[in-house]
Amino acid sequence: MTSPAENPVSPEVFATFDADHDGFIGADDLVAAFTVMGMSWSRQEVEACIATFDTDGDGLLSVAEFRAVVQHLPTDNQGEAAFMLKALDTDHDGFLSLDEVRNFYVGIGTLVDGQDFNRDRLLGLIADADQDGDGRLSLIECTTLLSP
């Protein structure tokens, strides 16, 4: 378990999971996000997770409640990076390309497919961690991306 200072949830992270942009994370939001990330959580498992951390009993996760969920997730960056790479590497070449990163954001509803996405922002995200300059992310580079 980590403290909020060690594992903060930024508004951008919360918004990534809040696919319908209603200010809360519901079961549909989590199921969709977990599915895109390659996690096979059943609706019942997601609802149980929400029920565990839903302090006000409204069936939704507020930012504070979502922070509690995140604080209970593993914080091993290498493990998270390996999971992220496996989940998002759709061509199974062992790297994340610009298209794979873009498809992730489309899949969780942050970008609309066909929309003129901010290519420079996504390229910048990759470039920040792309140590060898090949324009794609390896496991080690994904670990760097997830490091504070």
List the defining traits of the structure above.
about 150 residues; mainly alpha; Recoverin, domain 1; 2 domains; about 55% helix; elongated; disordered N terminus
Describe the protein in words.
With 148 residues, the protein is mostly helical. The protein has 2 domains: 11-71, Recoverin, domain 1 (Orthogonal Bundle), CATH 1.10.238.10; 77-146, Recoverin, domain 1, CATH 1.10.238.10. It is 53% helix and 0% strand. It has 8 helices and no strands.
List the helices and strands and how they pair.
Blueprint: H1 11-17, H2 27-36, H3 43-53, H4 63-71, H5 77-88, H6 98-107, H7 119-129, H8 139-146
Briefly summarize what is shown:
By secondary structure, the protein is an all-alpha fold.
CATH topology of the largest domain: Recoverin, domain 1
What's the level 1 CATH class of the largest domain?
Mainly Alpha
Assembly state here? single chain
Q: How many β-strand stretches?
A: 0
Helix content: 40-55%
Q: How many domains comprise the coordinates? A: 2
Order of helices and strands: HHHHHHHH
Nearest-angstrom radius of gyration? 16 Å
Shape: elongated
Taking the alpha carbons of the first and last residues, their distance comes to 16 Å
